[in-house]
Amino acid sequence: MEGVRGMDDRIPVTVLTGFLGSGKTTLLQRLLSCEDGAGVAVIVNELGEVSLDHLFVQKLTESTIVLKNGCICCTMREDLQTGLRELIDNRDRGLIAPFDRVVIETTGLADPTPIAMTLDGDLLLKRQVRLANIIATIDAMFGADQLREHEESMRQAAIADRLVLTKTDIASKEETARTREKIHAVNPMAVVLDACSLESLWTQLFDIDPFDPRTKSSEVQHWLKRLPSIEVLKSSRSSGRYQGKNGKNVMIRGYHKDKNEEGGEIQTFAIRTEKPLNWTAFAIWLSALLHRHGNRILRIKGLLNVPGALGPVVLNAVQSHITPPMHLDEWPDEDHTSRIVFIVQGLSPGLIQKSLDCFLSVLE
Ligand SMILES: Nc1nc2c(ncn2[C@@H]2O[C@H](COP(=O)(O)OP(=O)(O)OP(=O)(O)O)[C@@H](O)[C@H]2O)c(=O)[nH]1
């Protein structure tokens, strides 16, 4: 496990996603125009034979690669690997201007998860780049309907760390409120920003990096603040078995639920256990869970109390991609119980909780 103070000099890679026409290219353009924008290399992925998006990014330099053959989310992983290697190689040989960050703009129909996995799955690349942040743009006018009707839109929002609400300048108050409500139901942990009133765009999108050990603590504080609004399923391994309504050990009350027409119900919930967690056993359980249901587990964030450690272990998974767990030197708050937040689709929270309980109790 990495220590929180460990320096990570790999190049941070931001995945910029968002449904068709939601404002990805516009946001990218703004980011590239920031003071530090010159240090960004860009990979643009476009659908179809004719690539246009890159033409709209006016500040494109030689540090831009356009992947034209379709969607990197499914068939283009090799192109993405090759593109990234090419960028790094050209930089190292002095053929292009130096850069210290890469932004990958996906197509409007991409599932960003395989991109994260591509970064992780290539041993050579993994030494040079790391996933830094997943940003999704959401159209304030049409976002609520898109999230409900399009699986792609919902998955992009559920997986993201930062959600940028666009077109609030032209959306009605009601449309914006509806979209915000829907976003909150799909991903209550994400930071939601308004593209039209973002003052320090760069800082808000890049400086707090959920996967960077140095800013991990503030990121954890952020989603812990949101935890009270997420229903917690107490593990029966807590000290004293929890008796919820109907005499059950698990209390399920008012956790976030949302309906997506294509892919089934999305639910956000947290499991809390008061006893320290046997890390090895937990890791085996988690791997098995992700192996079996990775596609239906959209996001996991956790703070784990592991025996013998001074601070908690931070867990971050995007579907079946697990970021190497990191140790924090100290707990961010008084609460030292393990808390694991899940965003799932079409999976029963109670069953996940039961399966964890069973697995841990067998090992006791
Ligand atoms: N008024 C307003 N228009 C916006 C905003 N963001 C984007 N747009 C407009 O919305 C349209 C689509 O924006 P793009 O940035 O091309 O969206 P995209 O997500 O890159 O689109 P695709 O690549 O086709 O999926 C353009 O006409 C933009 O000028 C915003 O915050 N306010």
UniProtKB/TrEMBL annotation:
<dbReference type="InterPro" id="IPR011629">
    <property type="entry name" value="CobW-like_C"/>
</dbReference>
<feature type="domain" description="CobW C-terminal">
    <location>
        <begin position="266"/>
        <end position="360"/>
    </location>
</feature>
<dbReference type="InterPro" id="IPR036627">
    <property type="entry name" value="CobW-likC_sf"/>
</dbReference>
<dbReference type="InterPro" id="IPR003495">
    <property type="entry name" value="CobW/HypB/UreG_nucleotide-bd"/>
</dbReference>
<dbReference type="Pfam" id="PF02492">
    <property type="entry name" value="cobW"/>
</dbReference>
<keyword id="KW-0547">Nucleotide-binding</keyword>
<comment type="similarity">
    <text>Belongs to the SIMIBI class G3E GTPase family. ZNG1 subfamily.</text>
</comment>
<dbReference type="InterPro" id="IPR027417">
    <property type="entry name" value="P-loop_NTPase"/>
</dbReference>
<dbReference type="InterPro" id="IPR051316">
    <property type="entry name" value="Zinc-reg_GTPase_activator"/>
</dbReference>
<dbReference type="Pfam" id="PF07683">
    <property type="entry name" value="CobW_C"/>
</dbReference>
<keyword id="KW-0378">Hydrolase</keyword>
<protein>
    <submittedName>
        <fullName>GTP-binding protein</fullName>
    </submittedName>
</protein>
<keyword id="KW-0143">Chaperone</keyword>
